Amino acid sequence: MPYSPLLVKPMREDLTSVGVQELMTAADVDAFMAEKDGLSMLIVNSVCGCAAGSARPGVRMALQGAVKPDRIASVFAGQDVEATARAREHFADIPPSSPSIALIKDGELAYFIPRHRIESRDAQALSEDLMQAFERYAATEKAQ
Asked: Does the pTM of the predicted model rise above 0.90?
């Protein structure tokens, strides 16, 4: 049974308030993933404490940097069940993990941060990790 929409509303707003697009259905995920050009970030949001303590704040900080993904979206594990399952199909070789963050470069998974690499760090460390990954994967596009 999905979490109450009232429970997850502020957790969703942590990301939507900085421009993250919500993908609430499998069709939304399909449309997002169909756009293959550039650098995209897909966040698997969750109610877990590490999502509140590191993941969402770390994403918010990283998005204040000079280099950002071209498109950013999220699915909410435990709420957008169908969308989350479809998103995870795109990372089939990686065990399901929430929260987690995927960077997709030109339609291919380029970088993945699973829960165990989020829960053991603070938001600042996660933010720095993401900003370095943004620079690394967006740099190849800008150099051409």
From this structure: yes
Alpha helices by DSSP H, listed for the chain, are 5-16, 26-34, 49-50, 56-62, 81-89, 123-143
Are 118 and 77 within 8 A, CB to CB? no
50 is catalytic: yes
**50, 104, 123, 130: the active-site residue:** 50
Q: Which fold has domain 5-139?
A: Glutaredoxin (3.40.30)
* Separation between Cα atoms, residue 72 and residue 22, nearest integer Å: 9
Is residue 39 helix, strand or coil? strand
48 labelled catalytic: yes
- Residue 60 to residues 92, 95, 131, 141: CA-CA distances in angstroms? 26, 25, 11, 23
Low-confidence ranges of the chain (pLDDT < 70): 139-144
Task: Give residue 98's identity as a one-letter amino acid code.
Answer: S
